[in-house]
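#structure-requests
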Amino acid sequence: MRALAINHDTRRLSTAYLFSKIGEFAFEAAFAVSVVQLTNANLLLIGVIYFLRYIPTLIFSPLGGWLADNYSKRKILISAELIKAIAAIILFFTSEAFDSPIIVIIFASMIMTTGDCLYSPTFRSYFPHVVEKNQLSSLNSGLQAIEDCSSIIGPLIFSLITIAFFPALTFLFFLACLIASAAWLLALREFPTSNTTALQPYSIIKEAMQSIGRIRQSNPSLFTVICCTTLCAIFATSILRFILPAAVLEEFHIEAAVGYVNSLLATGTVLGSILYEKFNLRTSSRSVVRYWWIYGCLLFISALALNLSTSAFIASLFFVGFVGAFVDISIITNIQLLSLQSETGRNFSLYYFTAVLGDALSGLVASIVFLIAGPATLIGMTFLLSVAPLAWGVKSDEDEKHDCI
């Protein structure tokens, strides 16, 4: 974690990241509640909305990776924050007690996804330029701690805004956080880019699809990390974004409970991110598979406990958050260690492309499970998440020799 303060650039980036993430987690809590209330908790319709939200990934995620490797990282990061600010403005001015038309909710969420597609690969590919490889694990642990603290603060701010004022004001708070983040990013250093090829969107998207096949042959460990995460995201995203919030609203009957549950999860992830290096002297593709499996099992236990024991539900959610930090840090560290510096942006873009594709499919899968399982959708989805990583268990053992320390 000390790597966060090692130089001017890491301090600037980590501070901007803190502002951005606090606002984003507040936004996600407000967005989830607005969607659940707008659709009357219809999981089928909610799944369709979340599927449409991630459609821009098909175009902008490969584009984001190309821009990260070929253009000014500082300008991309600032532009991405301003794009997300547009979504915040739209939702604030069209929301009144969460009565925005569904089409406006979908349009704004697609803008939000576009900004994320540009931001994520650029942000992660900046750090290999300013820190040594042996510091990346410590740096990622620190960034995870920032994200996890933000995931406590953001939902709590949403809950306070909801109690004291009205929920839509959260979108204005998100806008303020994005402006603060962009201001801190203005002082970042620029680095030489490879910018040797002209921007050709169709070629970039085609190359991104072909990269999956190439990585499978040349870098099987990275392939395992990316594809296992994509498969698990198909179940995890809908659970965390709307199935669990809907179940919590049904069980406790107050909107603020969603913020409290998110903050509880985040409390566990803060502790997990701080202790990651203590528990993980070595990071490999096997780590990702193992932690995804534990994460799924704990979520399944939480789903079973929700209607049986509040204390067991709370305790299991805390450990879900703890292991979730291990999942996130091991994914990011693997991609950084297993990528050439000139391909870091592209590989993060590929990871984000496939993971968010899993996010989009998650909405559709959740809708199908809802049609089959009905009220037991939360239990069904968490069970599927717990078994999904098992398909990669044997393969990760075969690829272990390719992993880096």
